[in-house]
Amino acid sequence: MGEPGYRADQITDWLYKKRVDTVDKMTDLPRPLRRRLLETFSLGKVDIVRVLGARDTTRKFLFRLADGNLIESVLIPASPALYGGRTDRRTICVSTQVGCAYGCKFCASGLEGFSRNLSANEIADQIIAVESEAEEKIDNVVFMGMGEPLANFQNVLRAIRIINAEWGLGIGARHITISTSGLAPQIRKLGEEPVQIRLAVSLHGATDEVRNRIMPINRRYNIETLLSACDYYHAHKKQRLTFEYILIADVNDSDEQARLLCRHAYRLRAKVNLIPYNTVSGLPWSRPSEKRQEKFLSILQAEGIPATLRREKGHDIDAACGQLRLQTEREAVARTL
Ligand code: SF4
Predict the structure, then answer these.
(1) pLDDT profile of the chain (337 residues), mean per 10
(2) Phi and psi for 180 in degrees, rounded to 5?
(3) DSSP 23
(4) Does pTM surpass 0.70?
(5) Using N-to-C axis directions, what is the helix angle for 223-237 and 184-192, rounded to 10°?
(6) What per-residue confidence (pLDDT) applies to 188?
(7) Does 216 sit in the ligand 1 pocket, CB within 6 Å?
(8) Side-chain half-sphere CA neighbours of 152 within 13 A
(9) Where are the beta strands (DSSP E) in the chain?
(10) CA–CA distance from 275 to each of 91, 193, 198, 278, 315 (Å)?
C-alpha cells in the first residue's frame, strides 16, 4: 500500500497482541490509512455460539462463521505429551474445513459431506476466540478437528505462519501438529516445506483390508503408498512421526493388527497414539473393552514401540470431531419442521 514497513508491525500488533475488533481502534495509525484499510479489508471474526464443558474441563466450542457455516474447536487442558511436547500444556484442536470430503466411516465430520475450505484467518481466529473466552493462553495446537488439513494445504500453511510468528500468536512450531488421514502426495509436499511442525498420520488400520473398510482414502493411497510418503517425509525432516490409531471393537483391535502396526511403526521409528473410539450417535462402531485396549498396547510395548493409550477426555461432551456441529444443525433443522 506504499506505507513504511513499520506500519505492518503496528497492524499485526493490534490484530494479534492487542486483538482489537475494528480498524478504528488502531489509534496509532493515521486516519487516512485506517480509512483505506477499512475500504480494502474486513476483520472477519468467528462467533462462539455454544460452549460445552466436560467434567474434566475439556471444553468444546461451536463457532458460526460470517457466512453462517458452523465449525468446532476443542480445548484440552493438561494433555499428556502426546506429540513430543512437555506435559501440562493447554492444547486446542482446530478445524480446517467446513465438513469433510473424506468420509471416514467412524467420523461425524464426514457424515454431512464437505462444504468449503476455511481461510487462514478463520483457522487462526479459532485460537484467538478460545483464548479470549477461556481467558487462558494456548500453547499447543493440533490440526485434528473437522476437515482434512492437507486438503486445504495453502490456507493451513498460511495459518501456521500466523500461529507460529513472533508477530502473530507466537506458538512454537514444535507445538503445532498436523494430522492427516493419509494424503500421500501432500505428505511429500509438506516434507519439502521449511516449517518444523509435527506430523501425525491417522492410520487406524494396519492392513489395506481394514483401512479400506473404514477409510475410503485408502482406496486412493493404500498403506504402502502412504508409508513410502511417510518415509520421504521422515528422510527430509529427520523428525519422529506419530501414528494415530483409533481402537474400534472388532474392526482394528486384534492382536494381528497390533503386530502389523508394530512393523509399520518400526519402519518409520514412529510413535503410536492409541485412542479408544468415542461413540458417535447414528454410527454402528463401539469402543473395545479396557482389557482389549491394554492387550493391544502391551503388544506394541513388548516390541519396544513408544506408544500411549489415550484416556479420551471429553467422552461426555461428544468431543469427537464434528459431533457438536452435526447435533446443532440437526436441532436447527428439527426446529424448522
Ligand atoms: S476423520 Fe478426518 S479425514 Fe476422516 S472424515 Fe473425519 S475429519 Fe475427514
Answers:
(1) 95 95 94 95 87 77 93 79 58 94 87 91 95 90 94 98 96 95 97 94 97 97 98 92 96 98 97 90 89 98 94 53 58 49
(2) -130, 150
(3) G
(4) yes
(5) 10
(6) 97
(7) no
(8) 30
(9) 47-53, 59-64, 70-79, 89-93, 97-99, 114-117, 140-143, 176-180, 198-202, 242-247, 271-276, 307-309
(10) 16, 29, 18, 8, 11
CA 218 to chain centre: 20
Q: Report the run of H or E that residue 42 belongs to, with start and end.
A: none
| Index of the ligand 1 atom closest to the CA of residue 145 | 7
Atom of ligand 1 nearest to the CA of 144: 2
Active site (annotated) includes residue 321: yes
Torsion on CA atoms 159, 163, 166, 169, rounded to nearest 10: 130
149 vs 330: CA distance, rounded Å:
25
pLDDT at 248: 96
Instruction: For Cα atoms 56, 140, 241, give the angle at the middle one, nearest 5 degrees.
Output: 110
- Is there an atom of ligand 1 within 6 Å of 109 CB? yes
